[in-house]
User: Fold this.
Amino acid sequence: MNRDHKTVWAACLEIIRDNIDEKLYNTWFAPIVPVKLENNALTIQVPSPFYYEWLERNCIHLLKKTINAVLGTSGKLRYKILMDTNPTGKPQTTTIPSVGAQATQNKPVDVAVNVNDGDVQNMPNPLIFPGIKKIKIPSQLNENYTLENFVEGDCNRLARAAGYAVAKDPGKTAFNPLLLHGGVGLGKTHLAHAIGIKTKEYHSDKTVVYLSSEQFMQQYATAGKDHNTNDFIRFYGMTDVLIIDDIQFWANKAPRTQEAFFHIFNDLHQRNKQIIITSDKAPSELSGLEPRLISRLKWGLAADLQTPDVETRMAILRQKLENDGIDMPNDVIEYIAYSINTNVRELEGALISLIAQSSLNKKQITIDLAKQMIDKFVKSTSREITIEYIQKIVCDYFNLPIESIQSRTRKREIVQARQLTMYFAKKLTKASLAIIGLQCGNKDHATVLHACKTVANLNETDKQFHHWVSELEKRFQE
Ligand code: ADP
Ligand code: MG
Assistant:
């Protein structure tokens, strides 16, 4: 029987098809082109080294079995691989034998053949897939989101340090995947970009790609429509660092996107490529995603971003002002930092509105302007007064440093200020006695209860104390 490479490969495909999931078949085998059959060795052309690696790693037994069945035990398999563009801009191919599916040791034969299949060097749109040649993939990194600009605090120390480690040695630390999680406006997106940028600083040759999970989903859908899902999967397989933002977006939808990502994830992970993911929830709370995907997310490190404390909030404000070259009185900065404790995005929002207010109305930025503005800001979002804000007002009133509330001192004036803080915290916030105690010098709830009773008592019986309480009340109402 006169067999040529095409019929041999067709026979192989029949066997392969019966032994492998259809999607995998379509992704990894359908794009393969048989090239020649010589001395009972079949040469197949694969679109990239990545393909070759994947096949040799994942399908070696199947390939071996198949070649044996079709060509007999002396049968061999060789790959012709379309290579990356070389420095002269000319793409190359190389032929190498299969590691496992060859019967004897064949020396790799390098045949450099130029393949002319159009110019894809200047890819105008990041959403167009580059086909089979490696080109400069647009990273979509936002250069304003640097690690240097990402103010460190207790709230983000672990995540920031892990990010730094990953940028230095992408794919080589235990933090793979690195999952950054936390509520809105706490810096997930910023940190994710920052890690990408730092990676490029250390390793300019590495391909770093950032995209939102929504973009990923849309690209996958578009690729599906254009019958390009293979290119899609290959494209992301070429990255060294893949950053996907807001993965919770896929919850309860996009099962096919999740599946595609699952395969890309496995492939990247196996080849020690770095994966960075952000989510608004911890992996254990991420319901609606495929369980096997969630289990992958738990492989590396899940680092959370928490609400910054007041010092960090102050540092963030100072840094933003410095970056923008704007001067602002210290008391105003403090006022904003103490009043807005939800997240960094709102903190920035308040700062920007204040700057806008002052420049539009040509008014100096003063504490009064800040109070007016923040008041509106706080009312419009029906925010509560915070314990930190109460500490600040009380300490300012008595001219005490704010740290004194936290101190262990039994000095009378400080004990009084602490008790007043606890009293107002109970009255003006929804915080529990335990939380109030924790934030006012690590006291227990009984101490807070006692303080509240004492203040209420003295307010009735002690003239001086009554004066303080009513003056402070006025300030809280301002
Ligand atoms: P998320 O993605 O968690 O919703 P973002 O990364 O978009 O939050 O952060 C919201 C805003 O707050 C951004 O402008 C970001 O630059 C800023 N931001 C958050 N955390 C920090 C930080 N630690 N230092 C400086 N800016 C921060
Ligand atoms: Mg974000």
